[in-house]
C-alpha cells in the first residue's frame, strides 16, 4: 500500500513515511492510493472479532511495512488502556444505537486514534533512532488525547495549541495539568481556526519542518483517520447481530470532517452504511455544504459544543479529492480559490453526488440543551453536547426504516455546565476528574502569530 498527496506532488510513500510526514510536503493531505474493499462474505468473517482484533484486521489492510506481530502489539497495547472490555461499546436508548467512544484515558473519542498513534510514533522513532517534535491544534479533545498518547515518551516533544478561553474548563485542565517535561501547552489568543492555520503554516515551512523533525497528531495525519475507520465496522457488526438489518445510518457530530471522513472510508470499504448524517452546531459550514453546496467560511461562533467550533475543516480536502475524481489539479485550484475568497462552488452534479452519501443538519445551543433534557427525561441517559447535536440531527434526517447509530464522542462530565443547565444536576464525575482543578498546571499564553509560536518551538524543541 502506497500513499499520495491530495495535491499530487508527493507519491509512492510507505505507510510509515506517511505517518511521519503528517501533512504532505506539498501542503496537501495524504491518502492511500487505493481504498481496499471487502465483499459481503469477507465482511461477515470479521463480525465475531474483539475490537482490538478487528482493528488489526482493518488497519493491516493499509500497512505493509510493519511486521504483523509488531502492528498487533501496538494495537493491543493501545486499547488495553480503555476501561470498557468492548473498547467502544454500543448501547440502545429510545430506539437509537449510541456508540460510546469515550472509554479511553481522556474520556473522548480522540483516544481511539491517539493511543494507537502515540505507540506508533514511539515504535517508528525507536526503529530509526530519530526524534520528533509534534505540533497540533485542538478545539478541545484532540489536545488532551494527544498529550496522553505521548506524555513521557522518549524522543518526542509535543506542542499543543488551543484557543484561549474557548475550550471547556475540564478540557483545559486535562491538557494543562500534564506537567511532563516533553509536554507544552500554548493558549493562543484567537480561535481554533487561527491555531489550525498557524500549524499548517508551520508545516508549510519545509526547512523548519525538517530542522525540527515536526510531526502531526491532528487528523491531518492519516493514521488518525485510519484508526477511526474501525469503529464504523464495529458498530455495523453489533447492530446487525441484533436486528439482522441490511444497512444502517450513522450520525456523526463533526467540525473538522475527520470523524465523518473515516465513516466515508468505511462505507467505501464495504460497510453497509446507507447515509452518513453530518451533524454540526451553529458553525454550519459543513451542513451548508451538504444541503446547499454552500462551502463559505464565516465567523466562528463560540458554542456549548466547542470541539465543533470550526469554520475551516482541515479534512475536507480529503473528501474533495474523491469528489473531484482524484484530480489533484482540481483540488489545488479549489484550495487556492478558497484561500483567496473563503468560498468554494460546486456543480449540481457534484452536489447530487454529495447528497447520495451524506445528509446534514445544524443544531444550535438552545436545541442542544433541549435535546439533552428530552433524552435524559425519556431514557435516563445523559448526552454530552456534541453527542446531543448528533442525536438531534440524526432524529431529524434519519430513514426510520433503518437503524440509526449515533457516535457519542465525549463523556458528559467534560461539559458539566451545559449538562447541568439541561438536566438540572451535575453529571456524575469520573474518578479521573476528581480533584483535577487542584493539580499543578503548565501553560503558556501566546499571540496568534506564527513567528512567535515558531520561536517557542525552536527554543524548546528536542
Question: If you had to describe this structure to a student in words, what would you say it looks like?
Answer:
Keywords: Amino-acid biosynthesis, Lyase, Pyridoxal phosphate, Threonine biosynthesis. It is an enzyme of class 4 (lyase). It catalyses: O-phospho-L-homoserine + H2O = L-threonine + phosphate. With about 450 residues, the chain is α/β, with parallel strands linked by helices. It is built from 19 helices and 15 strands. β9, α11 and β10 form a beta-alpha-beta unit. The radius of gyration is 20 Å and the shape is globular. The mean pLDDT is about 95.
Task: Please give a handful of descriptors for the protein shown.
462 residues, alpha/beta, Rossmann fold, five-stranded parallel sheet, 46% helix, Threonine synthase, pyridoxal phosphate binding, Threonine_Synthase
